[in-house]
Amino acid sequence: MLRRKRPEMRLRILQVLVLGLLIVFWYLMTAPGLIPPFYFDKPNRAAFFFGEPQKVFWVIVDWFATGEIFGHLGVTLLETALGFVIGSAFGLGIGLWLALSPTASAVMDPYIKGFNSMPRVVLAPIFAVWFGLGIWSKVALGVTLVFFVVFFNVYQGVREVSPNLIANARMLGASRRQLLRSIYLPSAMSWVFASLHNAVGLAFVGAVVGEYLGSASGVGYLILQAEGTFDINTVFAGILVLTAFALALDAAVGAVERRLMTWQPRASETEKV
Q1: What are the C-alpha distances in Å from 111 to residues 116, 172, 234?
Q2: Burial tier of 81 (Cβ tally within 10 Å: 0-12, 13-18, 19+)
Q3: Which of 34, 53, 111, 191 lies in disulfide reach of 157, CB 3.0 to 4.6 Å?
Q4: pTM, whole model, 2 decimals?
Q5: Is residue 270 part of a domain?
Q6: How far is the C-alpha of 214 from the C-alpha of 206, rounded, in Å?
Q7: Which residue, among 220, 207, 215, 72, has the nearest Cα to 146 in the 3D structure?
Q8: Are 184 and 122 in contact (CB under 8 A)?
Q9: Domain range holding 261?
Q10: Per-residue pLDDT tens over the stretch 199-208
Q11: How many domains does the chain have?
Q12: Are 50 and 26 spatial neighbours (Cβ–Cβ below 8 Å)?
């Protein structure tokens, strides 16, 4: 157990060191007068464009100390969670349906490709007209971003199932429901979770872009307000808060994946074999 934890601890230490080096580099490049400007003509111009890490830190501290961020963050997380769950559910269901139905897949193929090639961000104003400036226009945008990532991974995962395995199961009398529960879904699970890690970030993108284009609350709204006053430190503070919570959601998906995929061998175990 200790031997397994040592490489993980070493990895975390290296990750923290990289983060520290990035913050130090950010500080050195933006602190007025600390380093002679090599691109900007004034010493404080870099801080105007890229912010200052110490000021960004105090903006975040002030947000959480006063509680100002909690209402906005709650709205953004709710929009993200709804977009993630609904988009993943639709992607999983439709991906399974089309993967198991060749005729339906052939009929829907040009429509799926057409909708996938459409820039989903341009749908944000349409959703705002349809659903208003509340949370559901942001949820709808998040759903369109998440759906295709999950759909294509589920579709590919089911199609990758060995035909010999299916034939053997049918010879043993397995029903369609048993095939779905015991073969198709387990075979597609690794593909599903691989897509969910990407879907978390896309759900955040959908929520924040929707808030940016039109809303009265949310972290995207805070960023828009700060941008309007050229407050770059607050803009970076909002970006960092969103990044931290996106990483937390991704870690939660990873924890669920490890819990449900206990049957799957670890990389170290497969290398030993």
Answers
A1: 8, 37, 42
A2: middle
A3: 191
A4: 0.76
A5: no
A6: 12
A7: 207
A8: no
A9: 52-265
A10: 888 888 888 8
A11: 2
A12: yes
